[in-house]
Amino acid sequence: MNPSNPTPDPSSRAGHAPGSAPRPGDTAFVQVAVATVWVRPGLERAGIDDPSLTVPVDLDAWNSAMDETETLRWLTGRLETQALLGARVIVDEVDGQWARIVVTDQPSPRDPRGYPGWVPLAQLSVDQGFAQAAASSPTATVTASRSRLMEDAEGTSPGIEVSFGTVLPVLGRTGTVVELAVPGDGTQYLPEADVVVREPGEVPPTPTVEEVIATGERFLGLRYLWSGMSAWGFDCSGFTHSVFRHHGITMPRDAGPQMNGSGFPRVEREDLRRGDLVFFSEGPGSPEIRHVAMYLGDDLIIHAPNAPRTIAVESLSGYDVKGEYAGAVRAIEQ
Description:
Layout: E1 27-30, E2 34-38, H1 59-65, H2 69-73, E3 79-84, E4 88-95, E5 98-103, E6 115-120, E7 124-125, H3 128-136, E8 139-142, E9 146-150, E10 158-163, E11 167-173, E12 177-182, E13 186-191, E14 195-198, H4 209-217, E15 229-230, E16 233-234, H5 236-246, H6 255-260, E17 277-281, E18 289-297, E19 300-303, E20 312-315, H7 316-319, E21 325-329
Antiparallel strand pairs: 1-4, 1-7, 2-3, 4-5, 5-6, 8-11, 8-14, 9-10, 11-12, 12-13, 15-16, 17-18, 17-21, 18-19, 19-20
């Protein structure tokens, strides 16, 4: 699809019922809290990955099933990314119960339309009503680490938990709850205290460095998850992408493109400032970027290091014992 000359939304074509499963060529929306995007179908482990493949998902159960480092590390190279509830995707192929998609709000040099990979078909919905609301309504962005949807404004029928960074169209407000469009599920509600509401076309205010750092520090202690993009777990570039995106700063999904394809100005090591992104290579002098962190000043970084660990603050020089520091960019004007 050429973004400068978009085709009509395929979800409006004849033969599609509201909330129906997608077909190749469709625009669809994620209808679970977090859809995990795989390299290809059939890689999942029975009894371990099942909670991430269902509708709804149960990511607490999935995390519990991966309580050993090697079980968690197994995901490396098998997952691509994750997409949050309401995220727009383009369906390229359907193979049985799986769909090959691109996630349109995650820039990647691998596809000009977004980030590619495979998800369970049941986790997607073609929903014309949601598409129309997403195109024209105010939006609510979840600012809480997690919040729980409610099926009624009084909160007597709780629904699924959703993650920080989830964006859904707003249908109404009462002062205590926000009425939202949810793909495949019609209308649900979130506490107004857990979201920020913006008008159509409104962007987040330009953040200060301290605001971005404070957002990142909220997730200290959260476990590392390869491909993670939610409050159930982040990987290194998922963490930086999500934190900066929350403040209206868009960058590629992966670490290498964040350094080399973001357009952010390069920064010499001796000129590092708080909020700069610092990158590490596969080995001293290697052009392959394997890791990204956010610089905090005084030789400190905050990052999602690897599978055995959680998001943490540590010294830059202490982390870079092999001399793999590869450069830095400044994503926030200072």
